[in-house]
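Each field is set out as follows.
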Amino acid sequence: QVQLVESGGGSVQAGGSLRLSCAASGTYTRPNMAWFRQAPGKEREGVAAIESAGRPIYADSVKGRFTISKDNPKNTLYLQMNSLKPEDTGMYYCAAQFGRLRTILLETDFNFWGQGTQVTVSS
């Protein structure tokens, strides 16, 4: 079992920045990892992912603004979010899976989930 714990959410004004962190434990094998988000009344959507080998994947809505990275010795995943917009508001979840990571991020492809951290962007 992989345990994931997110941190770093908060409230910012549009144009601001936040960095989310996700601490992973419970595995000796590096999983593929991702960030998803869910706005009120909407489905959960994939934001960014990073393969165990380090290749990143981004949703079109965040390309050029968000950067996903990981610190392997610390088993920690990050999401640097710049130029935030009100539509980025939502609960952000860290997720992990072992296997093939597809370019289109699907919730059903991920087996392990954190509890989420709230991001609120005001206009």
Remarks:
- The chain has a mean pLDDT of 95.
- The first strand starts at residue 3 and ends at 7.
- Residues 36 and 46 are 4 Å apart (CA to CA).
- The chain is about 0% helix and 50% strand.
